Amino acid sequence: MPPVQLLQLTDTHLYSDAAGEAYGVNTARSLDRVLASVFAGPGPRPDAIVVTGDVSDDLSAGSNLRLREALGNRGAPVHCLPGNHDDPRLMAELLGSDGFRYCGSAELAGWGLVTVDTHLHGEVGGWISGAALDRLDRDLATRRDRPVIVAMHHPPAAIGSAWLDRIGLGNAAEFLEVVARHPQVRAVIAGHVHQVFDELRGTVRVMTAPSTCVQFASGTADFAVDPRPPGYRWLTLYEDGAITTEAAWIEGMPAGAGPARSG
Ligand SMILES: [Fe+2]
User: Fold this and answer.
1) What residues in the chain have per-residue pLDDT under 70?
2) From the CA of 89, how far away is ligand 1's center (Å)?
3) What is the mean pLDDT of the chain?
4) Cα–ligand 1 centroid distance for 121 (angstroms)
5) Which of these, 57, 59, 90, lies nearest to 262 by C-alpha position?
6) How far is the CA of 5 from the centre of ligand 1 (A)?
7) Ligand 1 center to residue 214 CA distance, Å?
8) 191 CA from centroid of ligand 1 (Å)
9) Which of 71, 27, 83, 78 has the alpha carbon at shortest distance from 212?
10) In angstroms, what is the span from residue 57 Cα to ligand 1's centroid?
11) How far is Cα 40 from Cα 71, in angstroms, rounded to an integer?
12) I want to staple 228 with a disulfide (CB 3.0 to 4.6 A). Which of 76, 95, 170, 215 is the partner?
């Protein structure tokens, strides 16, 4: 069986207004340029796209529809989950049909994809409810025969930036306990931190991806923008559970700047 080609996009921070900017970056144009780079190249096309949250920056229907417009005709199913900046009800309504899937789980040609909702209403940090953890445990128990990748917004790991770690996943330890019971889980992919992270936590490899708009500096005590351009992560998932992956940044694109705010 050929490997699964998976494109991770994250933290698009789109606005209803096409001119909307985050940290000085026009987020709609930035996403378009990232997609042009991915789809114009000679490389493989994705079999699936996962958008790991913070689709919207203004909680608007228009921002969610902008993602639909950008990804709806790429020839691959689009799996979405909420970040702290999103309105989960709007996302479920607008990004849950016709080629888009909101939360839940899916089959990816020999692999399982399971998404986890870490959105906590009114908070920047994340939390997985007890019911969601139970659901995850049960879902993974039915998928022992194939490797699984889990997708979520808040990474279940401190990444070494004090300000981001304060607004991370509050019950990461509980999540990792559940995952440890299911060794077929090969990786967790997340967003939120607008930078790349790739380390083992407990039994599982935790990875994050560059934002499609602005990056945050790594290893900082306080908020700081990183001048790297917009990007994405590509994952190739092999039938035997192996993964090769690469984060990419679109050189020549404007980097972010501007006033501090969180996550
Ligand atoms: Fe974000």
Assistant:
1) 253-263
2) 18
3) 95
4) 15
5) 57
6) 24
7) 9
8) 7
9) 27
10) 8
11) 14
12) 215
pTM attached to this predicted model: 0.96
Distances (CA, A) of 41 to 10, 34, 36, 171, 234: 20, 11, 8, 40, 13
Contact 118, 169 (CB under 8 A): yes
- What's the pLDDT tens digit per position in 142-187? 999 999 999 999 999 999 999 999 999 999 999 999 999 999 999 9
Q: Distance from the CA of 135 to the center of ligand 1, in angstroms?
A: 26
**What's the helix, strand, coil split of the chain in %, to 5?**
20, 25, 50
Return the pLDDT at 260: 41
113 within 8 A of 79, measured Cβ to Cβ:
yes
Structure tokens at 175: 């999540």
CA distance 156 to 199: 11
pLDDT value for 259: 44
Report CA(143)–ligand 1 centroid distance (Å). Answer: 30
